[in-house]
Design goal:
Strand content: 35-45%
CATH topology of the largest domain: Metal Binding Protein, Guanine Nucleotide Exchange Factor, Chain A
Shape: elongated
Number of strands: 15
Order of helices and strands: EEEEHEEEEEEEEEEEH
Number of helices: 2
Mean pLDDT: 83
Structural class: mainly beta
């Protein structure tokens, strides 16, 4: 259960938007966001959104219903809604429980904008002298709010929790893509992300920052 997202409290009557702000929802979340997860269906594996659920009466479109587009596939039981302007998924009527809506848990109207630090979590799967790596796992084995870096994130901080303290141990550097790099898409399960390991360069870093100004 989540009571806040990115430092923003989850309200009992919670507002959420698409990316461009054309569509705005009001969600009934009296207990916070219950059971956030990554769905493993074919469409959710591709969009990578963290979702949670409410009853059908727990979502109201308060702005921009004319911008919502509907996508259906296969049995057409699930109804996926997205903004026709920016393309962001907002919510869907669930196939496994048609009495509920799933909603995109990451589009808070009061949340941090793109100039502020975003956080995601993962587990280190391999470590070497100069770098360490992690895999973006499928929902069945993923951490809550598991994520990975994307294009443009190089140089971003990688922190490890030691007891109750978060320690800077690396910088985002590169990823390994299986198969044809021209056909890959960001955010797919199984992608490997690697970070420069700062401990390998600590003597050089300390030498540079200890030099007198103008040296």
């Amino acid at each position: 259960m989540l009571k806040e997202i990115g430092g923003v409290p989850v309200l009992a009557k919670h507002r959420a938007t698409c990316h461009c702000g054309s569509v705005e929802l009001e969600l009934d979340l009296p207990q916070g966001i219950v059971d956030p997860r990554r769905c493993d269906c074919s469409i959710c594996r591709r969009k990578g959104a963290v979702v949670a659920s409410v009853s059908l009466s727990g979502i109201r479109i308060v702005k921009g219903s004319e911008h919502l587009k509907l996508y259906e596939f296969n049995t057409r039981t699930a109804k996926h809604y997205f903004c026709g302007n920016c393309g962001i998924y907002t919510h869907h009527q669930r196939r496994s429980n048609p009495d509920q809506y799933g909603f995109n848990a990451g589009h808070d109207v009061r949340g941090p904008n793109r100039t502020e630090l975003r956080r995601a979590f993962n587990t280190i799967t391999s470590a070497h002298e100069r770098w360490f790596c992690y895999v973006f796992d499928e929902s069945s084995s993923a951490l809550p709010l598991e994520g990975k870096t994307g294009s443009g994130d190089s140089g971003g901080p990688a922190l490890v929790q030691i007891n109750d303290q978060w320690v800077l141990v690396g910088l985002s550097a590169w990823g390994f893509i299986h198969g044809d790099v021209r056909a890959t898409r960001p955010g797919l399960y199984g992608q490997l992300t690697c970070n420069v390991r700062l401990s390998h360069y600590i003597e050089w870093i300390q030498g540079v920052i200890s030099e007198p100004l103008g040296a």
